[in-house]
Amino acid sequence: MGARGYAFVAGGSRGIGRATVLLLADRGYSVGLSYVKSSDAGMEASRLARERGAGDSIAIRMDSSRWSDVVEAARVIGSRFPYLNILVYSAGVLQVGPVEDLDPEEWDRVISVNLSGAFYTVKAFLPLLKKAPWASIVFISSIAGQTGNVYAGTAYAASKAGLIGLTKRLSVELARYGIRVNAVAPSFVETDMTKRFLEDPGSRRRIMELHPLRMILKPEDVARAILFLAEPASSGITGHILSINAGRYT
Ligand SMILES: NC(=O)c1ccc[n+]([C@@H]2O[C@H](COP(=O)([O-])OP(=O)(O)OC[C@H]3O[C@@H](n4cnc5c(N)ncnc54)[C@H](OP(=O)(O)O)[C@@H]3O)[C@@H](O)[C@H]2O)c1
Predict the structure, then answer these.
(1) pLDDT of res. 201
(2) Domain ranges across the chain
(3) Which residues contact 51 (CB under 8 A, 6 or more apart)?
(4) What separation in Å is there between the alpha carbon of 176 and the centre of ligand 1?
(5) Mean pLDDT across the chain
(6) In a mutational test of the pocket of ligand 1, which residue from 23, 160, 193 has the highest number of ligand atoms less than 8 Å from its CB?
(7) CB-side exposure of 205: number of CA atoms within 13 Å?
(8) Is residue 130 a contact partner of residue 124, using CB atoms and an 8 Å limit?
(9) 151 is known as an active-site residue
(10) What pLDDT was estimated at residue 149?
């Protein structure tokens, strides 16, 4: 039984999702997480969560672009936890390059994982959120959904802008259940997703210089903001997009 409550992090095997899982565990939540390919990383994150204080933890394979996978994950979590206080959607894939090189199949894949998957996950897990004494949802949008001046491509930017729309509309709709819905919008975070840009020292320096605070965010920086939006400490905040960008607004 989770002393503090119950949480599920889609895409909790690596990066920002993993840091969020571990922070939730530190806080004493029971945590479920999903992975799609990295079963070892998913199991490891679940094991670490338990070591760090999660009352219970479980890693589930879920391709969030497949409705049937998401329904099954919600069923497994529902058989394990009595309800869900916190739902974080951190699953995502990057797309780069000019629109001329963007195939319709790639567009569909990015929108499916980053945006449709967020909708599927909310829809499937909503009954569990509605059962909880308090509940909230946090999406991971991006600076790419706020400004066009980014390394990511069109499909990625559109998917992340879509998450902002999802946040706004769901925050109004789910308010009747007391469920808050917010998003974070990070700039560059040091994860596998951004490795290709950050490995080369010259490219890393150029990216740093885009940020007035001259820093590259760590997954833990984002996880702390997610936790703030997720927990009752931020009650009264809903439909908000919290930029975490080391001062970079363009
Ligand atoms: N890193 C950044 O600079 C940055 C900035 C702004 C926003 N974001 C957003 O933050 C979120 C997390 O990014 P990250 O940097 O932590 O990325 P990451 O390290 O590449 O991790 C991505 C996560 O998404 C999961 N995933 C990928 N495809 C999936 C699918 N089809 N179904 C379900 N899960 C899937 C991965 O599972 P596996 O481990 O099994 O592959 C992994 O857990 C993403 O939505 C990303 O767009 C990242």
Answers:
(1) 95
(2) 5-244
(3) none
(4) 30
(5) 97
(6) 193
(7) 3
(8) no
(9) no
(10) 81
Spatial distance between the Cα atoms of 10 and 123, rounded to a whole number of angstroms: 13
Name the residue of 36, 67, 70, 141 whose CB sits within 8 Å of the most ligand 1 atoms, as the mutation to test its pocket: 36
Q: Is 38 in the pocket of ligand 1 (CB under 6 A)?
A: yes
Kindly report the pTM of this predicted structure. Answer: 0.98
Domain 5-244: homologous superfamily in CATH: NAD(P)-binding Rossmann-like Domain (3.40.50.720)
How far is residue 13's CA from residue 92's CA, in Å, rounded to a whole number? 12
Contacts of 50 (CB under 8 A, 6+ apart): 25, 56, 57
| Lookup: tokens for 86 | 């916190």
Tell me the two tokens of residue 9. 């992090």
- In angstroms, the CA 155 to CA 161 distance is 10
Closest CA to 91 of 62, 54, 71: 62
